[in-house]
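The instructor's notes for this session suggest beginning with a concrete chain rather than abstract definitions. Hand out the sequence below and ask the class to guess, before any prediction is shown, which regions might be ordered.
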Amino acid sequence: MSKPQPRKPLKWVGSAKRDLDAMPEDVKDLFGHAIDLAQAGGKHQDAKVTSRPGERTRSPLMSRKTDITIEEGSTNVYTDLGYADAAEMQRKSQLAAEIARAIKARRLTQQGAAELLGVDQSKVSRITRGQFRGVSEAKLLELVTKLDHDVKIVVGPVRRRAGKIELQFA
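After discussion, reveal the predicted structure:
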């Protein structure tokens, strides 16, 4: 098994964090998932490229001189946004990303995936888009196994730090 790609620490520019934090919970969840995917080197299925790689774009609003603050964030967007269950949300994001990847690799439609997984199509859509609040980690793990992935849980002693739960994908 391999470890997931390490997440890059966030850099919150200007009012971005404050603006996202003011959004409704379901919007924060969706954007949190998209940011988590980007931190791990991936791309959300609804993300759009707005410029060519290497090309810098400037907003007309940026033409005037202003001081832009940059706040150093963590490697967990959910922690930065103050989620009480931040570690769990990040694990769910990883599982949802793996479910989406497996569905795409098998070239399944959402309806085909729903039939295979034994859930309705709207649940497949919500999970793969990052709206997995209300879906337990156990349920996400079950869906991963239905996509022909083995799930292995290893319990071991803690080594000089607090215990943690970590996902690895083969």
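Then share the key points. The domain at 11-49+67-146 is CATH 1.10.260.40 (434 Repressor (Amino-terminal Domain)). The chain has one domain: 11-49+67-146.
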